[in-house]
Structure formats: C-alpha cells, structure tokens
Design goal:
Helix content is about 35%, strand content about 20%. With about 375 residues, the protein is α/β, with parallel strands linked by helices. The protein is elongated and about 75 Å long.
Amino acid sequence: MLTDSHNSDAAELFKSLGLPNLTIHHAFGHFDFTRPSRRILVIGPMGSGKTEYSARVWRDAKVALHKSSTFARNTRTAHADRRNVFFIRSILDAERFTEYPDDALAYRGGYESLGKRIARIRDSFELERILEDNPDCGTFIVDEASFYDERIAYVISRESERNGRVFIFPTLILNFRKDIFNPTARLLLETATDVFPLTAYCEHRDCMEDSFYTYRFYLVEGQECPALFFDPLIVVGGDQLKNDPRQPNYATRCEKHHYLPGKEYTYLILKPLGLEAARGNLEPLIGELRLLNTDIQSSALAGHFEEKYGHRQSESSLMNLNSLKVPCIAEKALMYLFLEQNLIGEHQFISITRELNLDTEYLTRILTDNGRSVRLEGQAEKL
C-alpha cells in the first residue's frame, strides 16, 4: 500500500480496516483509456465528488474518441473500446436527481447527457445482460456498486480479467456507523486494482477539517438529532433536506463531529435482549421495546444515556442526547434484531409489532428498502 506523506492518512485508514494492498491515488488527471483490466474504486463520503469523477471520465472519453485510428489500437481489447463508456445506476437510487432527464449522469451541480449509454439495474444478473448487449463498450461506471449483491464483485472481476474491460465504482465503502458498508463493499475492495479516496470538508458549522465519513441525522422540530447506532443500515431516499423526523439526512463529518450514540447500548443491552428472545424468552425484549415506544425516559436506553452523557454539558453530549427525540426508536431496535442480527424470526417480528402497536407504515418501508417482504396488517401512524 502506498504510504508517502501525501496519502499516509488514507493508507492508515485502510490498514486499520484490514484491507489489501492497493495503489492509492490522490490527484486526478485525465483518464487513461489505454490501460486494460482495471477495477477502480472511487470512495469517499456523500458530497465528496464520487459521481462528478464519473462525469469527468465521460468528458475525457468524448475527447479521446476523436483521436486517430493508430491511437485507438491502444484502447481496444477485442471488440471493446475503453473510450466507449457506459454508466450504470441502481434502481434503488431512482429518487435522486429527479429534476434531471432520464439519460442524465447527474451529480451535485450539474449533469451529462448519456443518450443510450445509461441503464438502471437491480442485481448482478442484470449487469451481465448489459455487458452482453453492449460489446463495444470497454469502460463501465457502476454507481454505488455496494448496493448490489455480492456476486457482482466476481462478475466484474471475471469480465475485466478475461476481456480487458475497465470498471469504475463510485461508491460508499463506509456506512454511517463508520463500518464497511456491507459484504459487497468488502468484496469490491478485495478485487479492486486501484483506489481513488476522496474527502470533503466537514459540514459542521464550526469546522473545515477533511472528512472521510458520512454522518446520518434527523431533524426534529428544527433540531439536529444523530441517528442511533442501530438505525437501519439501508434507507432509500434523495439528497434533499428532509424535515420529516422519520426521514434521515446526511452530511460529511470529521471524526470529532461524527456523532454516533447508542453503540455501547446496542451490544451491552439490545443484542443480549435479542439473544434471550432467540432462546424463547421474549418478555425482557418486549418490555424494553414497549418503553422505547411509549415511555422512552424510563427505558434502559435513556438510563444508559443519562449515565454516559447526562452530567456533561459539551456539545457532543448534548447532541447525543438529542438522538432520543427521534421517532420510531422501538421500530428501529426491532428491525436491527430482525434484519441484521437474525435473532428475531418473522413470526416473532409480526407478533411484537402487533402487540406493541408499532408503526407498520415505517416498518414496511424499511423492509422494502432492504429487499424484504413481510405482511404487516394495519397502519399506526405515530406523527
């Protein structure tokens, strides 16, 4: 892994995450279409310019396509010319940039019209069809590649090694918890050949430090309320600021201003309650969820926060306490045990939802975002 003075911070970050040796780049010049079989990760927090990087590759391709036939021999492998760029976006990402045309490679501040060289896909199988249907394209930009199934990493690696095609992945690698986003993100890192790490200024009003991290928060009566650690990993939505306290907002933040309350509670209290429920004793879990739902100040979560933050007046302590103001905390705790930890079965999930009269509209939406279908009868809007 490259460790000179210009990228030692990024190298140390990747090393701490247990990632393989990769070539790390910091400056972006014109894209080199003569080099085959690359798998390039463009990573950074939201707002760091990952999709704008893709637009620059597209613009460079338009220039490169005017070069001579002699030059073209350097950009081709069999029928595929790496100057022919195809852009792929997840079907889950449809709510972003709705004000732009369907053929737009859109980013904050502008867009490029791609004509027929753009598609939305659901999974790695649909990607294979795109590759087969576009044999002349040698460069594929797969936006937010971490959203897809793990198989996509090997589909891409095989295609790149066999046919010289280049793949670019502008994607989140770290989630709002500062963990590897998911198994797909891990596999993309393992099979990548190059990494371009991008940062952004911390968006805290008093800070301009570099940020590697994506911070999730909610607005409750105009107040910033950090997402709890057990907030759902995947929540599909656009980039616009949301005042609905059930809809998350995102910002880029440095380590100091990335608030993430509830991690200790998750492992000290919530997950053990889920383990006990998995053994057949549901009552302790139901008791805590009931308090989270109707009397949060009496919950173990509030007690833990009072012990941890209650006697401090620092900005971070006050901000972390704000997380208790966000609605649907019981729903999020139950979803964490069901979707991520697999400690609660579907029958138990439905039973607890009914017993506690939880918000089925919210639960259904999050389940859908995470590719799960559970039949929940009735809706209990809580706002």
